[in-house]
Design a protein that fits this description.
Layout (H helix, E strand, L loop, with lengths): L1 H24 L5 E10 L9 E10 L2 E10 L3 H9 L6 E6 L7 E3 L4
């Protein structure tokens, strides 16, 4: 039981640090309007539960898509997060200028 909980805590911390680094490195990227196309809470394989948002965006006339993953400590929290998401709503997406297929949700919902 302790190993399972340790796995979740470590996974949560790793995902949170990675997200922080990605946000910091993308601060100068242009922001596009994105549209949420899906919201799920897939079964956790390693590192605890996540809420996943699928989104689409257009950059310089080209259509792209991405997945935003937000880490949680409890599956119920991840399920609550995705249940509040409205499919079709707009989000801010930062797009890497040199690789527009690379993007990150600018602000967590």
């Amino acid at each position: 039981m302790i190993v399972w909980y340790f796995d979740i805590v470590v996974g949560f911390l790793i995902r949170t640090v990675i997200r922080f680094v990605k946000i910091r490195s993308s601060e100068t990227w242009p922001v596009e309007k994105g549209t949420i196309s899906s919201a799920t809470c897939p079964p956790a394989v390693y590192g605890g539960p996540v809420g996943e948002l699928g989104y689409t965006y257009i950059h310089k006339g080209e259509y792209y898509s991405g997945i935003h993953r937000k880490a949680f400590m409890l599956r119920g929290s991840a399920q609550d997060y995705v249940s509040r998401i409205v499919i079709g709503s707009q989000i801010a997406v930062r797009v890497k200028p040199t690789r527009p297929e690379t993007s990150i949700v600018a602000v967590d919902e």
